[in-house]
């Protein structure tokens, strides 16, 4: 077995829960077969799931926690300083629908 599992330490997890009681360790939220435990620990063992952007940012950069965090919307904060992912806003969805509608209208006009 070549996978070196990495799980967030108890002190860091407790500090995270003091700052944000709703935070969960990603590993606690995933079901898997026992033989997959090293891979799951490697993948999810040091990632925290946060209810919102502010909590995720706070935990990722707090000196007592400093862990990768992911919001329920998919925003990812890394203590190295990167922010990735996230969901589109409703206005972006509306804009995309408007563009789709315009494109469909042009296609109908060309087909006629």
Automatic annotation (TrEMBL):
Residues covered by the SMC hinge domain: 16-60
Protein name: SMC hinge domain-containing protein
Region (Disordered) residue spans: 79-101
Taxonomy of the source species: Eukaryota, Rhodophyta, Bangiophyceae, Porphyridiales, Porphyridiaceae
Comp. bias intervals (Polar residues): 85-101
Coiled-coil ranges per UniProt: none
Example of a GO biological process term: chromosome organization
SUPFAM superfamilies, sorted: Smc hinge domain
GO cellular component terms listed in the entry, alphabetical order: chromosome
One of the record's GO molecular function terms: ATP binding
Pfam families xrefs: SMC_hinge
């Amino acid at each position: 077995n070549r996978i070196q599992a990495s799980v967030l330490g108890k002190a860091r997890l407790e500090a995270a829960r003091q700052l944000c009681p709703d935070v969960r360790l990603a590993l606690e939220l995933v079901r898997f077969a026992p033989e997959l435990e090293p891979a799951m620990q490697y993948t999810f063992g040091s990632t925290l799931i946060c209810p919102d952007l502010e909590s995720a940012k706070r935990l990722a950069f707090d000196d007592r926690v400093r862990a990768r965090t992911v919001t329920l919307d998919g925003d990812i904060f890394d203590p190295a300083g990167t922010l990735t992912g996230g969901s589109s806003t409703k206005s972006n969805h509306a804009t995309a629908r408007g563009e789709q509608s315009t494109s469909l209208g042009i296609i109908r006009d060309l087909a006629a």
